[in-house]
Amino acid sequence: MSDCLFCKIVAGEIPSDRVYEDDKMIVFKDINPQADVHLLAIPRAHIESLNEVSEEHDEIMAHMIRQLPRLAKEQGLDDGFRTIINTGKGGGQIIFHLHMHLLGGNKLPGFH
Ligand code: 5GP
Ligand code: ZN
Predict the structure, then answer these.
(1) pLDDT score for 109
(2) Which candidate, 9, 14, 87, 1, places its Cα nearest to that of 50?
(3) 112 inside domain
(4) Which of 21, 31, 38 to mutate to test ligand 1, by most ligand atoms within 8 A of the CB atom?
């Protein structure tokens, strides 16, 4: 989608601080981190939200989820991490290109 911010990040038209990429997905630091570690994992292909996910996306969804524990450990999150997917306006979604938030560290709300 030409007017999608995250598609522009995938295309490199808007800079991002990438920590991982492969043929299916990219992972970059959130511009406004809500915790010590705050990454966004997104598919290269434009999918608006979880509402648009169907069987054809099973492979990419599983692939993305499987990368998260490794990425968290790479960021030093040995104790665990939080994954959030906001869906739709009512779910707090602002960017309508599916993304998984990966959060962790001392500033994580609810951290004890
Ligand atoms: P949502 O509320 O849609 O789940 O989350 C969108 C996230 O994208 C927010 O946490 C916001 O800080 C992040 N974000 C918005 N614009 C940019 C940008 O241009 N670059 C990066 N790296 N993150 C962004
Ligand atoms: Zn997009």
Answers:
(1) 73
(2) 87
(3) no
(4) 31
**9 belongs to a structural domain:** yes
Residues whose CB is under 5 A from ligand 2 (ion)? Answer: 1, 4, 6-7, 46, 97
Instruction: Please state the domain count of the chain.
Output: 1
Give me the CATH number covering residue 39.
Answer: 3.30.428.10
pLDDT value of position 110? 66
Beta strand 37-43 with 25-29 is antiparallel
Mutate to test the pocket of ligand 1, among 17, 38, 40 (most ligand atoms within 8 A of CB): 40
**Residues 4-55 pLDDT 10s:** 999 999 999 999 999 999 999 999 999 999 999 999 999 999 999 999 999 9
As a whole number of angstroms, the distance between CA 48 and CA 71 comes to: 23
Q: Note whether residue 31 is domain-resident.
A: yes
